[in-house]
Amino acid sequence: xxxxxxxxxxxxxxxxxxxxxxxxxxxxxxxxxxxxxxxxxxxxxxxxxxxxxxxxxxxxxxxxxxxxxxxxxxxxxxxxxxxxxxxxxxxxxxxxxxxxxxxxxxxxxxxxxxxxxxxxxxxxxxxxxxxxxxxxxxxxxxxxxxxxxxxxxxxxxxxxxxxxxxxxxxxxxxxxxxxxx
Length: 181
Fold this sequence. Notes:
5 helices; alpha+beta; three-stranded antiparallel β-sheet; single chain
């Protein structure tokens, strides 16, 4: 899946064995900003990157999923070889994902924020959800994440609820985006 054809314009790519150093750099920037990206699964990048990529591909097919996980597709938003952000689309919802995580997650590297990349990734994930036959997409965010709230609301998200998520350890907002015509 790509969003543009020019080599320097941002595009989505699936798990790629050749982006090891770029992925490590992407995650390093989050750590240096005092943030984390995604779940602890991403900690495996430094241990065996090729195995990490293979795991993401198996999970996309629903193979070898840890208990409570849903099949999902993971993408990097790249410009050239620089990773601008990463996003995932869970193909189904588990009870845990209904509480926090939803169908779509995305993160933009700290130095690239405010440039519209989160909106682009969410739009592309909604297109991917349509191709998978998902008609209604749940997107969640921390209540205090005003940037993510704006992205979701601008993309058609309708607030369903806001409550404390024990799993996330924070107040979480849950939005639904209707994809049916």
